[in-house]
Structures are given as C-alpha cells and as structure tokens.
C-alpha cells in the first residue's frame, strides 16, 4: 500500500538524513522507479523533501535528519496527511502508522493533521466512462474540511436546476477521477459533484462536524443507495472471456461472472436502471456479444438496429 511506503520513506529520511532512490528501493523491496516516484510525490505535495545532485547526493528533508516531525510547518503537515490519508483508509497497517506519525507532530498541529488524513476517500470503481481532471476548487474544499469552515457555492443538479448552496463540508471523495463533496445541510447530509459547483466561497462560519463522522462509511451509504437504483434491470450475456474487463469499464460494479460456456465464452450478468440503458451500452459490440435474456433488452437492441439500418442503410 502506497501510504505505508510514504510513511516509511519519510521516517527513513528522518533517521538517515539523506537517502537515494536505490537505498529506498532496497530497504522497502520496491523498484527504483517506484521509490523515485514516491520521493517526487512527497516533494510535490509540499513536504520539505528535495534532491541533492552530484556525487554523494540523494534526497533529504529540509533541515537534515530528525527523530520527530517538529520541523514541519502546519501547512506541510496537512499536505503530508492529505497525501497519505486516502490510501491509509484502505489498510489497517497504514492507519496505525498514521496514528503513530500524528503523535510525533507538535500538539498544535495534530487536530488539523488528523482532519487532513480523513478528509478524502478514493473510490476507483466507475459510475461513468468519463474521466475528469482534478478540479481546481478541490484544494479549497480540502482546506474548508480541515479548518471546519462552512462554504457557499452555486450548484447545477442533474436536471439542470441552479441553486445557491450553503453547507458544512464533511469530506471529499475521488471516485474514478470525479470528485464529490459530502456535506451537512439544513435538510440533512448530502453529496455534491464538485464539477457542478462554481463561485465557491469559504465563509467564517464554523461548520458542524459530528465527532463520530467517518467519510468512508458515509460514502459507502451513498454508494449503496445509488447502486441499488442503478441495478434495477439485469441481463445475461455471452462474451469472449478476455473482454469481460471491457464490460466492467461500462457497467462498473454491476458485472457478475457466472461461468465459462463450452465454446469458451464467458456467461456474465450486467445491470443498469432500465433495459434501454443496457442495450445502449451493448449496441456497439455488434455480434461480439450475445444477449441471452431478458426479452426486453433484446427488443431494445433490435429497435436500435432498425433505427441505424434506416438511417445508414
């Protein structure tokens, strides 16, 4: 897990003063290229880690070797924990390492560092085939979560309705490169797609943040509701076994492999909110995929085929 490596890298630099990518690779049993990427990630995140070129060079922490983290500023500590937190949420060992790392911080930094470590969750499964760059306002929202400040923003929902929202930010989720904000509102907890926000303003209002709030648990609750709505119709299809991963790219979590047929094709169940949506995903496969059932999806595919035939002959 990358969070483990980043913590170990930082502690190793504190203990030895200066390290090389080759030393890290040998110590952590990773490739030199991976060690170099980890060092660059720490530096890019704002941690005072920098390279020393030339003979006897390497990477070191600004200020030399240390046995604790008292040399980090508040913003540097927040940058470190924002970097480590998402991965650590998936591994108990990394979470334990972060707790130890928090105790090594100056006491005045600990609350913000802990908030940073739990501010973001990463969910790699897709709800869409689209990929978006990280919006510029994510860093501002991260700061609002850490500082416990309310935010105001203009928002356009899926139906195209525009509203002005005033919320208490609780955490952020990176779902397959699409960002979501989980926030408390006057009508309860809600989630917002960050790419539908504009005119963000961080206010002086102190945001309410339940002491027992867990971003990962809250996101799981949201996912269960959304996935339930997205899986109301299922279809069984036959496809080349080597192409099942392509179906996963289209249907996300709603792909179940049921077995291999005598002819070598995989029998797979896919799901979506309606027969038309399944048919739209599968139409581009042509004869490369066979829908076994239900009749409703077969009928939608036949209708799409007739429409295309009439349009293009």
Verbal overview:
The protein has helices spanning 2-16, 21-28, 32-44, 74-88, 92-103, 107-117, 138-147, 215-230, 244-251, 275-283, 295-312, and strands at residues 18-19, 49-52, 58-61, 120-123, 149-156, 162-175, 178-185, 188-193, 197-206, 233-240, 255-260, 265-272, 289-293. With 313 residues, the chain is of the alpha+beta class. The protein has three domains: 2-118, Orthogonal Bundle (Arc Repressor Mutant, subunit A); 123-228, SH3 type barrels; 231-312, Alpha-Beta Plaits (2-Layer Sandwich), CATH 3.30.70. The strands form three sheets. Strands 4, 5, 6, 7, 8 and 9 form a six-stranded mixed sheet that branches. Strands 11-12-10-13 form a four-stranded antiparallel sheet. A three-stranded antiparallel sheet has the order 1-3-2. A hairpin with a 5-residue loop joins β2 and β3 (58-61).
How would you summarize what this structure contains?
With 313 residues, the chain is of the alpha+beta class.
SSE diagram, text form:
Elements: H1 2-16, E1 18-19, H2 21-28, H3 32-44, E2 49-52, E3 58-61, H4 74-88, H5 92-103, H6 107-117, E4 120-123, H7 138-147, E5 149-156, E6 162-175, E7 178-185, E8 188-193, E9 197-206, H8 215-230, E10 233-240, H9 244-251, E11 255-260, E12 265-272, H10 275-283, E13 289-293, H11 295-312
Parallel strand pairs: 4-6
Antiparallel strand pairs: 1-3, 2-3, 5-6, 5-9, 6-7, 7-8, 10-12, 10-13, 11-12
Helix pairs in contact: 1-4, 2-3, 4-5, 4-6, 5-6, 6-7, 10-11
């Amino acid at each position: 897990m990358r969070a483990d490596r980043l913590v170990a890298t930082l502690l190793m630099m504190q203990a030895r003063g200066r390290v090389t990518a080759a030393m890290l690779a040998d110590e952590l049993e990773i490739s030199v290229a991976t060690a170099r990427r980890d060092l660059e990630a720490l530096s890019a995140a704002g941690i005072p880690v920098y390279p020393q070129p030339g003979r006897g060079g390497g990477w070191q922490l600004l200020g030399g070797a240390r046995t604790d983290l008292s040399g980090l500023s508040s913003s540097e500590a927040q940058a470190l924990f924002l970097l480590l937190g998402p991965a650590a949420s998936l591994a108990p060992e990394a979470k334990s390492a972060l707790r130890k790392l928090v105790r090594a911080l100056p006491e005045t930094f600990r609350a913000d560092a802990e908030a940073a470590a739990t501010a973001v969750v990463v969910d790699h499964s897709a709800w869409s085939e689209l990929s978006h760059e990280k919006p510029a306002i994510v860093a501002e929202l991260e700061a609002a979560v850490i500082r416990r400040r309310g935010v105001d923003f203009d928002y356009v929902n899926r139906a195209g309705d525009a509203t002005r929202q005033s919320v208490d930010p609780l955490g952020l989720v990176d779902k397959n490169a699409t960002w979501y904000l989980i926030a408390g509102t006057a009508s309860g907890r809600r989630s917002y797609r960050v790419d539908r926000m504009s005119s963000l303003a961080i206010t002086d209002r102190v945001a309410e943040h339940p002491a027992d709030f867990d971003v990962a648990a809250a996101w799981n609750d949201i996912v269960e509701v959304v996935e339930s709505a997205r899986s109301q119709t299922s279809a069984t299809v036959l496809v080349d076994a080597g192409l099942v991963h392509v179906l996963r790219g289209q249907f996300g979590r709603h792909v179940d492999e049921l077995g291999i047929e005598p002819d070598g094709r995989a029998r797979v169940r896919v799901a979506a909110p309606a027969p038309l949506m399944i048919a739209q995903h599968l139409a581009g496969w042509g004869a490369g995929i066979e829908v076994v059932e239900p009749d409703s999806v077969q009928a939608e595919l036949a209708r799409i085929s007739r429409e295309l035939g009439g349009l293009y002959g």
